[in-house]
Target: Tubulin polymerization-promoting protein family member 3
Amino acid sequence: MAGSTEMASLEESFRKFAIYGDTKATGQEMNGKNWAKLCKDCKVTDGKSVTSTDVDIVFSKVKGKTARVINYEEFKKALEELAPKRFKDKSKEEAYEAICQLVAGKEPINVGVTKAKTVGAVERLTDTSKYTGSHKERFDESGKGKGKSGRENIVDTSGYVSAYKNAGTYDTKVKK
Model:
């Protein structure tokens, strides 16, 4: 069989795929969707000798009758089931080692993840050097936003209407 370091990396791959996409997963058990993803991402399924249907059948075969997940031991049994099918020209032990090498050390691949793009209007709206008037006061010299302090209106509690020319002169007129 394979070496202990390879088995450790195989178990690590099992745990990474087991928790993929599930925030409540502990990494001890893997569901059918993640098993199929592992087989696809690690190139166990090749479309010819091993298909997604084969992967689903093997998952159903190794899991318990009422269970919906497999543990690490059942995972190794599932790899043993798929190994001779994937590597037809090798012996059972060699095929198992080869399939373990395919899986060991791999992580789930995020395909189709949307990346944010700044083009056109978004680029203009996020360029702080183009802001004018009172809006440019919301940013410091480096272009970083000031947060709430940049949006807050400063309240004038002097008692005068804004832009009043003789503000602050009431006390001098009353004393006369």
